[in-house]
Amino acid sequence: MTDERFEADLMDDEAFDQAFAARFAAALEAEGPDEATQERMLSNLLAAAAQRGDATAVSPEDADEKNVPTSTEGQTMVEGGRRRRRPVRWQAVAAVAASLALAVLVLRVTLFAGPDQRSAECASTQGQAAEESQPAVTLGATAPLSSEAAASDEAAVDPTAYPQIVLASGEKLVLVEGLVEVGESDLGAPAGTAEATDGTQAVQCEVYEIALGEHAGAYAVRYEVGGPLYLAELLG
Amino acid sequence: MATTSSVDLEGVYRQHVKSVWRLCYSYLGSAADAEDATQATFMRLVDHPRTFEGEDHERAWLLTVAANVCRDVLKSARHTRVVAMPEEGPEPAADSHEGAGVDPAEVVARDNGESEVLRAVRELPERLREVVHLHYYEGMKTDDIARLIGAPPSTVRNRLRDARELLRESLGGERA
After folding, report:
1. Within 13 Å, how many C-alpha atoms sit on residue B122's CB side?
2. Distance between CA atoms of residues A156 and A14, nearest Å
3. Which residue in chain A has the smallest CA separation from B112?
4. A174 has which bridge partners?
5. Is the pLDDT of residue B16 over 90?
6. Contact by Cβ (8 Å): A209, A173
7. Which of A13, A56, A174 lies nearest to residue B4, judging by beta carbons?
8. Does the complex come out with an ipTM higher than 0.85?
9. By C-alpha distance, which of A210, A196, A139 is closest to A165?
10. Which contacts of A216-220 are long-range, i.e. CB under 8 A and separated by 24 or more positions?
11. Arithmetic mean of pLDDT, B36-52
């Protein structure tokens, strides 16, 4: 359906559309948020930001030099949330998820990485990577995939903020809703490095074809070094 | 070009909090859940300070994150359980004035005196609800919605067409 055709369809019943839009807007605006709610949310937000070392004062340019908020520090928001009228759920969930992700990452490095790779990773974090003989960039390797990931080990890229992936070939993928994780054992050939974008900004990511399992034929996207793989599908 | 400073955070919040909250409310149908999701959305900004190219980019980013947060909430165990219970239990709940197969969230909305229009939107499938909000409330063009949700423009137009038909049906002969 073309845009012109769609607009023409709308014109067929413009009265419905206008009336619906007006009623929808009025109904939504009647629901809120009221001033008290807005102020409460702002208060929680600013408290959380302050408890994270005023992380919001870190500009993207400075982020390479400073530690942007850590996952464990997210628990402080729970404390901020105690002032709210309802029990806080999402902060606790986010903190647990971040802790689990960190634990998995540590296990990967300590249990599964070979001695050479482990030493390369250590060297990399100490800024000595250039002087070392680095292993090739493979699954779980240490080469930075995005500037955000490189900025800090703890500044994870939020995949949901960059749902569109553009391969070097020009093909486009879209991140499957709900962040479906893919196991490395199901991976096939690498499709190469791609750009994941929110429509205006982009980060680098790695893309693999999925060869085995229930998602065979789809793609897996890794947003950060050592990070999880998420299911993506070809757009269109 | 603005960066997310501690001063800007409040400014960005005040500028967009209503849009974000209302998108979340359209998705979730609960003021409390919308509040949680709104805070989660702005916390992403705290966690990942970034540069925006302008107000439109700022708004698009926040709405994208808010939509993703809401999808995650809807897929959480609590929401899944709320919707699934009537289907699992063949007998009507003893304390319910509604029979099995009725979405409890709908009953709650009705009991709360929620607007018929909002209820009609909430009864839409999730993929339609999103485009309805962005098009009818945010006033976004289909191409802009397509970029925001990562779907082809034709898909957005088809979803809007389907949504209009369903809304017409659910809102009856009153023509919205």
Report:
1. 27
2. 46
3. A31
4. A164, A233
5. yes
6. no
7. A56
8. no
9. A196
10. A216/A186, A218/A176, A219/A165, A219/A173, A219/A191, A220/A182, A220/A186, A220/A187
11. 85
Question: In the predicted model, what is the mean pLDDT of chain B?
Answer: 76
Is B150's CB within 8 Å of A235's CB?
yes
pTM: 0.49
Both tokens of B150, joined, read: 């990562």
Residue type, B95: D
The most distant pair of C-alpha atoms in chain A lies apart, rounded to whole Å, by: 70
Report the 10 Å Cβ neighbour count for B20. 27
| Contact partners, residue A190, CB within 8 Å, separation at least 6 | A206, A207, A208, A209
DSSP bridge partners of A190: A208
Cα A228 versus chain centre, distance: 11
B38 and B17 in contact (C-beta within 8 Å)? Answer: yes
- The alpha-carbon gap from A132 to the nearest alpha carbon of chain B, in Å, equals 31
Residue type, A46: L
Which has the closest alpha carbon to A154: A195, A105, A188? A105
A139-168 confidence digits (pLDDT tens): 333 334 554 444 444 457 788 888 889 888
CB-CB under 8 Å, B75 with A28: no
Q: Which residues of B touch A37 (CB under 8 A)?
A: 21, 31, 35
| A66, A67, A210, B8, B10 from A56: Cα distances, Å | 11, 11, 38, 9, 10
Q: What is the pLDDT of residue A13?
A: 67
